[in-house]
């Protein structure tokens, strides 16, 4: 049986460059939360000339890159359980305080992995129904509270199935919550008129992207190639 | 006033069948391992457990078949191939599940400790979490009504404790420990170190003595997180 | 115009002894909140052989006697603004945490001043209507949250008007919240059947008390003289 | 990132007529005196102010006629003979008053900072505080629905601050300062000392930088409570 979906794109952006593209959205002084998976890579590449406060659900503000082998502090982890370092100006607090900060609107950007994003900006990122049991973690709180949500994901799943949908088919994390989607093919903004393609990865055409997108894309008048 | 118990076994001795237990720890950091293992040995059954995840701290209790209901934000791990003890027993119908977003879980426990029986939150509107819940609109936005969570016992790990029950956690060991410690009828704390009242600076107490019923000194070394145990 | 009320009792208990009587209710390990006014005197007379954690609304647990002249810490005060000392095992927290502890039922005894107490245990202690503006402070939270409320007050006001009423006439602090009343004439328990006289101050008769009480008093089968 | 302002005057410069202002301090301890006096000089009018009492911290703003609405737990002092500036202007109809029990006040402000638009509390049931409010029963007890409180600006005093906006209070200086600092669009902190990020131990930060917009170094010495200023 052949796949009903187009071939995956031959030369998508590597994960490192997707993350580098997301990093350009971070500005000095911002509070940023990085979801599990791909977004956590950002912690290691934030430029030294800006001060970003990375927020971790488990009660840390201002953590830094992964700890070097042998220099791990046993009680300093990111929400994924990886040992991280602290930047100067960090603080610890409990989980209720941590999510108070999130719901209270103090997170400027939440960068989250995604399974599906709809043209209305609905996000599904916690459960693949055929696996049966998912993990919500802090994602629902983050999409409810963060000022801006950036979803970062491969443009399609491994079988080529589009992840940018007219409607999500997986259980939702939140409705109308995603502002920007960064994929291995493009950058897409969620507007009140649906999805707008604003940037293309090097070597990717508008057709390449639309072919692999379930929702209809509009084109930004300022459509350009992704910068890193 | 002396809340120090001689052993973890003595501290969990009156946990009864059907009790509701909050279990601290986050991906193993700040996990009350000695109390967890004492509870496994004690063997109280049909426990309702509240923990932010099911894979690490809960494993000994679930594997021992003591848990019949789980309130958690991470029942499973979408990105991990292997199946956990929880998932196996949940799919076999042996454990009931209530999935709660992590921030709502923290806030419900905080509400239990703070005498707030219910509150409105924006988290989960338009998702399966909203099913069966009242909602209301405030200032043009929809919110869900969530109820407090309380427990018969909370098991927490502190870095330092005194015999009055004052607790200080270390770094991200604070997470859920400091919240759960406020919301149980009997809060049981294991501590790496037990000091005299006054040795923890009054500015550095994270959980005031009023919340804590029992304190036990850890017999093993300091807890460590699982390196890179990414969920 | 003569007063419609009986003469004030000639030889009431001095404030120091009222407070000493209240002190006998405090047991080792208890968390106790002392309201403004008369109850604050308790902080100085708690026996050294029991550990009591005094809770202050402004975010202190475990404060001690008043600070000696010249030894005041500028940032260590009770809710009335008086400089106090700390006992070993004290802790500081913010006002939201402080009242979380109160509403959460962690205060074993709240000792509060009172303007009026009704036979149902209603308390009025924050406003004299003719003065127009009162101060609620933390009293409404304390009566809602404390496991036990002891009201301590003179048995009548200065004109001889009873303060133990069938119904309070002043604005309430809380309904059915007072458990015990300690006055300069007697100790009275609030029961489901109304007020029960359990102790008489030295030299005071049942008639002396009932005469100066608007509500009907029942007599405890164990009625005795107050001990200090 | 540098949130340090050169002066209290510069830090309050954009406070506008009709703004809602939270004012920290408790019986003078932890009072943001320099910001209060800068605000008096700035002269924004028709302010709605939120403070637990009216007699001490609020006096300069009330006496200057800048306050048109007061949300407080201590509008007056039943046990004190003298009449305060607040009582005089309130009785003259110049200031509107909303009386709130102190714990409800703290919880409403905390809710404002925590994104909780409304919550239920047992405080005030059966009293004038309940008038006009929704109530509901949970587990056999009646509770009142209370709304969050937010402000355009919060004025707080910290013991130490860094240029990111991390704050640490001293002893009972924490009280309402640490709660109000979370609930305003712009939180302005005066601090006895300003240090470099990292100099406040991450365990000792009471208000994380995320909440704080502006930091000003105090030009006068450390605040002191009024000795024996019993309310």
SSE layout:
The complex is a heterotetramer, with 2 copies of chain A (228 residues) and 2 copies of chain B (231 residues).
Chain A: H1 15-23, E1 31-34, E2 53-56, E3 60-66, E4 84-92, H2 95-103, E5 109-113, E6 116-118, E7 123-124, H3 139-145, E8 148-152, E9 164-165, E10 180-182, E11 186-191, E12 194-200, H4 206-211, E13 217-225
Helix pairs in contact in A: 2-3
Chain B: H1 8-11, E1 20-23, H2 33-42, E2 47-50, H3 59-63, E3 67-72, H4 85-91, E4 96-99, H5 102-114, E5 118-121, E6 135-138, E7 141-147, E8 151-162, E9 167-168, H6 177-180, E10 184-195, E11 214-217
Parallel strand pairs in B: 1-2, 1-8, 2-3, 3-4, 8-10, 10-11
Antiparallel strand pairs in B: 5-7, 6-7, 8-9
Gist of the model:
With 228 residues, chain A is of the alpha/beta class. Chain A is 14% helix and 29% strand.
Characterization of the model:
- The complex is a heterotetramer, with 2 copies of chain A (228 residues) and 2 copies of chain B (231 residues).
- Chain A has 228 residues and is an alpha/beta fold.
- In chain A, strands 4-3-2-1-5-8-10-11-12-13 form a 10-stranded mixed beta sheet, sandwiched between helices. A 3-stranded mixed beta sheet of chain A has the order 7-6-9, with no helix packed on it.
- Chain A contains 4 helices and 13 strands.
- Helix content of chain B is 19%, strand content 27%.
- Chain B contains 6 helices and 11 strands.
- The N and C termini of chain B lie far apart (42 Å).
- The interface between A and B is large, with 52 and 59 residues.
């Amino acid at each position: 049986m052949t796949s009903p979906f187009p071939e995956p794109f031959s030369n998508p952006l590597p994960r490192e460059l997707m993350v580098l593209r997301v990093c350009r959205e971070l500005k000095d002084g911002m509070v940023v939360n990085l979801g599990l998976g791909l977004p956590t890579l950002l912690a290691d590449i934030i430029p030294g000339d800006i001060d970003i406060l990375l927020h971790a659900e488990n009660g840390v503000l201002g953590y830094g890159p992964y700890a070097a082998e042998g220099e791990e502090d046993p009680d300093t982890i990111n929400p994924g359980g990886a040992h991280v370092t602290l930047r100067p100006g960090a603080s610890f607090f409990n989980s209720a305080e941590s999510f108070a900060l999130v719901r209270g609107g103090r997170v400027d950007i939440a960068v989250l992995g995604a399974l599906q994003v709809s043209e209305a900006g609905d996000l599904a990122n916690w459960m693949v129904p055929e696996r049966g049991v998912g993990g919500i973690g802090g994602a629902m709180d983050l999409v409810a509270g963060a000022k801006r949500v950036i979803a970062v994901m491969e443009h399609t799943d491994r079988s080529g199935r589009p992840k940018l949908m007219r409607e999500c088919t997986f259980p939702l994390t939140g409705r109308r919550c995603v502002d920007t989607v960064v994929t291995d093919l493009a950058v897409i903004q969620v507007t009140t008129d649906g999805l707008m393609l604003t940037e293309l990865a090097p070597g990717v055409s508008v057709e390449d992207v639309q072919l692999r997108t379930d929702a209809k894309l509009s084109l930004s008048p300022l459509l350009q190639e992704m910068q890193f | 006033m002396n809340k120090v118990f001689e052993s973890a076994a003595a501290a969990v001795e009156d946990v009864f069948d059907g009790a509701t237990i909050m279990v601290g720890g986050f991906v193993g950091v700040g996990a009350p391992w000695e109390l967890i293992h004492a509870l496994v040995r004690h063997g109280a059954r049909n426990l309702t457990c509240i923990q932010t995840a099911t894979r690490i701290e809960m494993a000994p209790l679930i594997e021992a078949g003591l848990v019949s209901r789980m309130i958690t934000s991470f029942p499973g791990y979408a990105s991990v191939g292997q199946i956990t003890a929880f998932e196996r027993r949940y799919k076999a119908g042996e454990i009931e599940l209530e999935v709660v977003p992590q921030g709502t879980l923290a806030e419900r426990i905080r509400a239990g400790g703070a005498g707030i029986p219910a509150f409105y939150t924006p988290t989960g509107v338009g998702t399966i979490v909203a099913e069966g819940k009242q909602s209301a609109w405030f200032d043009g936005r929809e919110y869900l009504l969530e109820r407090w969570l309380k427990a018969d016992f909370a098991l927490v790990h502190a870095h330092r404790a005194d015999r009055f029950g004052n607790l200080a956690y270390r770094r991200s060991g604070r997470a859920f420990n400091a919240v759960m410690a406020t919301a149980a009828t009997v809060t049981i704390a294991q501590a790496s170190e037990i000091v005299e009242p006054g040795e923890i600076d009054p500015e550095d107490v994270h959980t005031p003595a009023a919340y804590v019923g029992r304190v036990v000194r850890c017999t093993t070394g300091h807890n460590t997180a699982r390196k890179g145990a990414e969920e």
